[in-house]
TrEMBL record:
Pfam families: Polysacc_synt_2. This is Nucleoside-diphosphate sugar epimerase/dehydratase. SUPFAM superfamilies: NAD(P)-binding Rossmann-fold domains. The chain crosses the membrane at residues 21-44, 56-81, 93-114. It comes from the Bacteria. The keyword Cell wall biogenesis/degradation does not apply. The keyword Membrane applies. Keywords: Membrane, Transmembrane, Transmembrane helix.
Length: 653
């Protein structure tokens, strides 16, 4: 057996000993070293290894060590864990050295050992501090070097040698998955230096380091850099065969929603290259401060983010309304923890209920003096609503009417509807129900001015929401593929959940009543390119005709029923700017309430009677005069009519 292997086995054996045995070994080592400190103190002061004075008082070498051990115990040295010794331990060792020296002085004075060389005391103190402190630091580094060996862990580079990077490095010492090998940093002043035991390299060194150090992962520890710089860094890493992960961004770290050691997948918002516009604080203050607010669908992706952002304001009350017991419990628990950490006194009210229950809503509005309601409750998954059209109509369109009329009856000042780009020239039941929901608010606003102020906010897909392609792609990549894309040319609009929720709140404050606001979604994203980039940033290569030996294939499964190749955000060209650079207002035709209410009543009877044919016909007819072009209308009506011919379609949808 080699010396190196024997040493490894000794370290492993020592680490596995019971805590009491380790303490006895530490005391024994100190007991052997203290006589050395006493003898060296005499030798350095008197200049001879065996001076006559020392030969007379040799017994001091035997008496001082037990006193020193008692002083060490009083100083807490034997409660330390060797491999976790840090700066605090240095102070404790110095305290132990001072107490040991005082015990030495007391012994000499009691025994009246005169004339005793007084300068031996500070020499003894320095020797005890250096010998026993040095032994502990050496032991700590010895054990850490053993524990920090890869042992099957993935070697990683940490991008960012700042405070977050150093903290991440410290966290990874006890991590069972990753082994930090080096830092990458943009600052040329740091290149070549060693920080927290790791050498710092320039970004251009990464290609050779990946091969030399067999790196499979790069962890981004740059929570405070600008989004533009993050995007540049992420794009520069796409060409390398490494899996890019990141720390939470600064907003989550500051708010307490995340900790620096929480490593997560790369933020897809960094892939899309969207800029960031700060919130207009005056608009947010007008929308929420000092008010009682309710969020329907509070447990969903958008609803929960609306709730989180509402909690950052000075609300008097936040009512969370959802039909899912688990989702409601989860968001309530999260918000209560956030409030406790921030010392907030806001009242949080969780209410179980369905948005289709108008009496329940009206009662809740009155009981909790709700002043503003954000209606985010809806069924949004196109294929599911397509196969369950009656429930989609009930929950998306008819429920919106119920919420709006309940708000009016209870004196709610503002209602904001969260809508979707799929409501523009809809190809599917979900889009048609959301367009009808928009018409309900437009028509009520025109019919009943001076009452509840109704606002519609329309936007496209949000990243990482339930049912979106991003978590689906991540799961498929994690399982080795294939990644499924509906069509080579399909595009979608995307924005982050946080940005969408913030703009919904601000749009509500801009409204005078009945407006349709559209969020600036930037350029549409090609889903195929998004899939390719996610594969590459996961450390894999795309398997296709150009690269048949790649890791993960991309399969094209075809558009699902009701899906479009491209989405639109507006019905017409009448689009106006608002006071906010990310919010636009569009002028779109509505339907008079006296006509729309008749169709809504008919639609309600059809849904309650499980009459699929009649319900879908009325749905199409109700949105026909709302700016929908003839081609889109014929396509939707034709699809719904054709579905009636399916063999014995169940009437329970």
């Amino acid at each position: 057996m080699t010396v190196k292997r024997r040493t490894e086995r000794i370290r492993e054996w020592l680490l596995g000993l019971p805590r009491g045995v380790k303490r006895v070994i530490t005391m024994g080592t100190d007991l052997l070293m203290l006589p050395l400190a006493v003898w060296l103190a005499f030798f350095l002061r008197l200049g001879e290894p065996f001076h006559p004075f020392f030969l007379v008082h040799w017994w001091v070498v035997l008496v001082v060590p037990p006193l020193g051990i008692a002083c060490f115990a009083l100083s807490g040295l034997y409660s330390m864990v060797a491999r976790y010794i840090g700066p605090r331990a240095i102070f404790d060792v110095f305290k132990a050295a001072v107490l040991s020296t005082l015990a030495f002085v007391a012994l000499v004075e009691l025994m009246r050992l005169a004339p005793f060389p007084r300068s031996a005391y500070p020499i003894f103190l320095g020797l005890v501090f250096m010998i026993h402190g040095g032994i502990r630091l050496l032991a700590s580094n010895w054990f850490k070097s053993f524990l920090s060996k890869p042992r099957g862990r993935e070697p990683v580079a940490i991008y960012g040698a700042g405070r977050a990077g150093v903290q991440l490095r410290s966290t990874l010492l006890d991590n069972s998955e990753f082994h930090a090998r080096l830092f990458i940093d943009d600052d040329p002043k740091l290149h070549g230096h060693v920080i927290a035991g790791l050498k710092v390299y320039a970004p251009e060194d990464l290609p050779r380091l990946i091969e030399r150090c067999e790196l499979r992962h790069v962890l981004l520890a740059i929570p405070s850099v600008s989004r533009g710089r993050r995007q540049e860094i992420v794009q520069s890493l796409e060409d390398y065969a490494v899996h890019v992960k990141t720390l939470p961004d600064m907003a989550d770290l500051v708010s307490g929603r995340a900790r620096v050691e929480q490593i997560q997948e790369i933020d897809v918002d960094d892939l899309l290259g969207r800029g960031h516009v700060d919130s207009d604080n005056a608009l947010v203050r007008e929308a929420l401060d000092g008010r009682s607010a309710m969020i329907t669908g509070a447990g969903g992706s958008i609803g929960s983010e609306l709730a989180r952002q509402a909690m950052t304001r000075e609300l008097t009350r936040l009512v969370l309304f959802d039909h899912s017991e688990y989702l409601l419990y989860r968001i309530e628990r999260e918000l209560r923890q956030t409030a406790a950490m921030a010392g907030q006194a806001v009242e949080i009210v969780p209410l179980l209920g369905s948005a289709t229950d108008q009496r329940r809503l009206q009662s809740a509005f009155r009981a909790y003096a709700v002043e503003v309601v954000y209606h985010a409750a809806a069924y949004k998954h196109v294929p599911l609503v397509e196969t369950n059209p009656l429930e989609g109509i009930r929950n998306n369109a008819l429920a919106t009417r119920g919420v709006a009329e309940a708000a009016q009856a209870a004196g709610v000042k503002d209602m904001v509807l969260v809508s979707t780009d799929k409501a523009v020239h809809p190809h599917n039941v979900m889009g048609a129900t959301k367009r009808l929901a928009e018409l309900v608010l437009q028509s009520l606003a025109a019919e009943r001015p001076g009452g509840t102020r109704y606002t519609i906010v329309r936007f496209g897909n949000v990243l990482n929401s339930s049912g979106s392609v991003v978590p689906l792609f991540r799961e498929q990549i994690r399982h080795g593929g294939p990644v499924t894309v509906t069509h080579r040319e399909v595009t979608r609009y995307f924005m982050s959940i946080r940005e969408a929720a913030s703009l919904v709140i601000q749009a509500g404050a801009l409204s005078n009543g009945g407006e349709v606001y559209v969020l600036d979604m930037g350029k549409p994203v090609k889903i195929l390119e998004l899939a390719r980039r996610m594969v590459r940033l996961s450390g894999f290569t795309v398997r296709d005709e150009a690269n048949p030996e790649g890791d993960i294939a991309i399969d094209f499964i075809g558009l699902r029923p009701g899906e479009k190749l491209h989405e639109a955000l507006f019905y017409g060209a009448d689009v106006r700017d608002t006071a906010h650079p990310m919010i636009m207002q569009t002028a779109e035709p509505s339907v008079p309430w006296k006509d729309l209410s008749v169709m809504l009543d008919e639609l309600h009877r059809a849904v309650e009677g499980f009459d699929y044919a009649r319900a879908t016909q009325v749905l199409c007819r109700s949105i026909r005069g709302s700016g929908m072009d003839r081609e889109a209308y014929d396509r939707l009506a034709g699809r719904l009519e054709a579905s009636l011919n399916e063999a014995d379609r169940p009437q329970l949808h």
